[in-house]
Amino acid sequence: MSAREPSYGFxxxxxxxxxxxxxxxxxxAGQAVSGNADVNAQQLAEGLEPMSLLxxxxxxxxxxxxxxxxxxxxxxxxxxxxxxxxxxQKGSSESKEPGEEGTESDEEQRVVRHADEDSPAWARTxxxxxxxxxxxxxxxxxxxxxLTWAASAATGWVAFxxxxxxxxxxxxxxxxxxxxxxxxNRSFQNWQSEMLAVGSMAIFAVYLRQRGSxxxxxxxxxxxxxxxxx
Length: 230
Prior knowledge:
Layout: H1 10-13, H2 15-45, H3 53-57, H4 60-86, H5 106-109, H6 128-133, H7 136-166, H8 174-177, H9 181-207
Helix pairs in contact: 4-7, 4-9
């Protein structure tokens, strides 16, 4: 490490991921407790026994809600990562400059013979490893989306069949559930919110600022300047 580079502790160097990891656990716990209370209120209203917290968090009802949220978030990142390779929004800090669409040159991406001394090893090889590593973030997000969507479908199927049996109707097969309005309604109501959030951020970042945030342009930068961060 250069003598000029300050040496920070682990907590400060990883504050962003640790903070959001902690907030994730707190909000997940909050969802579990409040969801359990809501279910028990319905159980008591119907003259049924309340459900313990452990039973609730291991139920399909809880898991389908969690998986639906996760898969929509990973879909958002997956689409945004790939879309911003080829699509631009003039003036947005979330976009490349118009005319710079595409995967860029090896020199711009600092791969193979243009790699730096401290570049990741797979950025240097120039073979399939560089190809995979060059797309690894988007591929991971895409895989996580498919896995969480599959988990959402499986847990939604169990929850749907529980309701069917409670109403004295025949359960459906997993393949049959994939054709049910319940499955697609659950999916689309989560996806549309993510598309709205991404589109809003892209356009609002053109005209609005947040001083000190890398998600915003510097306060005094012109609205038409693209790709600058504060």
